[in-house]
């Protein structure tokens, strides 16, 4: 049986504006206990994602100023997204292929939800896909030389 993402996604998604500071993004992550935020522009269109890892590696580890803009630290290229009508099995496969744990759900350029690996795991029909996705995501990468 096909199940649309809209039925399992979290729809109250906190976003950050691309002109806000990295410090503000980190504070939002802390406040809402999340590890990533969709980044939107002034028109509400999704333009990227910023993760706690982005902040650590692109700001803190580089000795950069936490007042740097989110736009300078976020991932903006090839943002993997789902649509509300996407099949949940397809979303799980996409997450496994792209090695991501959180998938923004976008409709007409606007963020309408977020699906996490945990959302798939709690659905009995999707627990095998979630397990396979986690296995793919958790495959260790080779250290950089």
From TrEMBL:
This is CBS domain-containing protein. PROSITE patterns: CBS (PS51371). Residues 9-67, 74-131 form the CBS domain. SUPFAM superfamilies: CBS-domain pair. PANTHER family: CBS DOMAIN-CONTAINING PROTEIN (PTHR43080:SF2), CBS DOMAIN-CONTAINING PROTEIN CBSX3, MITOCHONDRIAL (PTHR43080). Coiled coil: none annotated. Keywords: CBS domain. It comes from Ornithinibacillus xuwenensis.
């Amino acid at each position: 049986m096909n199940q649309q993402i809209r039925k399992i996604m979290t729809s109250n998604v906190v976003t950050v504006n691309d002109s806000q500071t990295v410090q503000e993004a980190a504070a939002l992550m802390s406040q809402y206990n999340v590890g990533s935020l969709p980044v939107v522009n002034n028109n509400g269109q999704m333009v990227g994602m910023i993760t706690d890892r982005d902040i650590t590696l692109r700001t803190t580890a580089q000795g950069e100023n936490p007042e740097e803009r989110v736009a300078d630290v976020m991932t903006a290229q090839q943002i993997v997204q789902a649509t509300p009508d996407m099949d949940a099995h397809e979303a799980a496969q996409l997450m496994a292929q792209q090695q991501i744990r959180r998938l923004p759900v976008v409709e007409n350029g606007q963020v309408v939800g977020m699906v996490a690996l945990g959302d798939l795991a709690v659905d009995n029909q999707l627990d095998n896909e979630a397990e396979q996705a986690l296995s793919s995501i958790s495959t260790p990468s080779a250290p950089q030389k």
